[in-house]
Amino acid sequence: MAAEAKAQTELNDFKSLFSLEGKVVVITGGSRGLGLHAASGFLQAGASKVYITSRKAAACEQACAALNALPNKRPGAQAISVPADSAKIADVEGLVKKVKETTDHVDILFANAGATWGEKFDTHPDSAFAKVMDLNVKSVFNTIRLFAPLLQNNATMEDPSRVIVTASIAGLGVGSLGENATFGYSASKAAAIHLTRNLAVELGPRHILCNSIAPGFFPSKMASGLMDLQGGAEKMAQGNPNGRLGRPEDIAGAVVYLASRAGSHCNGACITLDGGALWSRGRL
Ligand SMILES: NC(=O)c1ccc[n+]([C@@H]2O[C@H](COP(=O)([O-])OP(=O)(O)OC[C@H]3O[C@@H](n4cnc5c(N)ncnc54)[C@H](OP(=O)(O)O)[C@@H]3O)[C@@H](O)[C@H]2O)c1
Question: What one GO molecular function would you report for this record (predicted)?
Fold first, then answer.
């Protein structure tokens, strides 16, 4: 009995359970907001290379300068700017090519770039619906598909590569309605969650695990317009079951978990990061 209890309590090197020592990471939409919070977490957990991509080169470079100044990253670790428009397949192909110049593999892909659009039902534009679906769903699929060979290169059953997709609680519940309704966004995030489940089953045997995160409101450039329309950050924070909005370390903690050995039996899951907001909707 004592031997059995001992075997069950002796975890295999607990100290390294959340470590990302030496891992190579690609982050789409990494120049600000949730992507930048994640980049900071990956580097501070030990990643050796973090490729930051978004459309604007100057924004990517600025983000990399801030990340490279982090005091507690691994010695020699680097954030590298590789601008690309995730919505354009040629740009994603170019991104893979550029990344390949400085690494022969990728361990973690954070498919995070996304867009939203708010407009009432009767005038909700076809072009906006298409733009949101393209970036939030099709480009996520294309990015994962085109990075799969690099993700597979170093992956093993014991140390699988990871794909993390940024969805939203708008993809689990109902998104914003009325004057600033986000029909395309909500549908796109539901699709992103389900796409991730399909890819988990398809890519699991290739030792690539796929999971999504579903954040509630985190102050960011994208979220600020909708937050203002809903009464502002303070009011929204008070209305949340845990009394606050999302913080950078909520994102960092979740993605480091999913990317580390601690998360290596998690495949096809969707982790909500919303302080309970999803379950408080429709309260009487
Ligand atoms: N903040 C929230 O409350 C919240 C909640 C749930 C889910 N999310 C999701 O979180 C993700 C990040 O959003 P965020 O709040 O961090 O917004 P954000 O601060 O506005 O950041 C968006 C990032 O995506 C990049 N981007 C936009 N379009 C792109 C494209 N076509 N190709 C490549 N990069 C592109 C932006 O850089 P460039 O402009 O340089 O391209 C930027 O780096 C999105 O998928 C969003 O739907 C956010």
Answer: oxidoreductase activity
